[in-house]
Amino acid sequence: SGLGLTIAKHIVEKHGGSINLDSTKKKTHFCISLPKCSV
């Protein structure tokens, strides 16, 4: 339904990150990037 991706995108963006995708006929790759933080 795509609802999970919408929720994930919202959470990632709230943490200052982004979600990108690369799609071909046979597969789709999702890349989630988040900023580093101090521990």
UniProtKB/TrEMBL annotation:
Keywords carried by this UniProt record: Kinase, Transferase
Keyword set includes Mitochondrion: no
Entry-linked Pfam families: HATPase_c (PF02518)
Domain Histidine kinase/HSP90-like ATPase: 1-36
Listed GO MF terms: kinase activity
Protein's name according to its UniProt entry: HAMP domain-containing histidine kinase
Native species: Bacillus cereus
